[in-house]
Amino acid sequence: MSNISMRRRGAFLSAAAALVTVGVLSGTAQAVPNSGSLYVGYGRSNAYASVKCVQQISNSLHYQTGYHTVAVDGSFGRDTYGAILAVQKWAGLQQDGVVGPQTGNVMIEATKDEYGCYPYLPTLR
């Protein structure tokens, strides 16, 4: 191979490596590691699996929170909202009725992710 071909090949590989590096670095600049999961609450999209996880977890914490058990039907409503508020109060969090990263983190850690809900709830880890 000629000297010019080697330089062109080297420049191409350097540019490709730079693009890969930029792509990798831009993917790590997320404020919330599990930010792909949707928040749960009034005015949110409330994905079925996410709501079902909130319901299962709040039911397993109902003795600690003092809130009654709720139907595990994946449908967000008054009971699920109340259960979220009860978990937030129990955990000493701001009571806004929305499962965001802090509430999600508490729910996952309190149950040691017994229900496999980590992919469906926003968390801090």
UniProtKB/TrEMBL annotation:
Keywords in alphabetical order? Signal
Q: Where is the signal peptide?
A: 1-31
The cross-references to InterPro entries, in alphabetical order and at most eight, read: Peptidoglycan-bd-like (IPR002477), PGBD-like_sf (IPR036365), PGBDSf (IPR036366)
In this chain the Peptidoglycan binding-like domain maps to 64-107
KW Manganese (keyword) present: no
Gene3D superfamilies given in the database record = PGBD-like superfamily/PGBD (1.10.101.10)
Name of the protein in question: Peptidoglycan binding-like domain-containing protein
Look up and give the organism this protein is from. Answer: Streptomyces lucensis JCM 4490
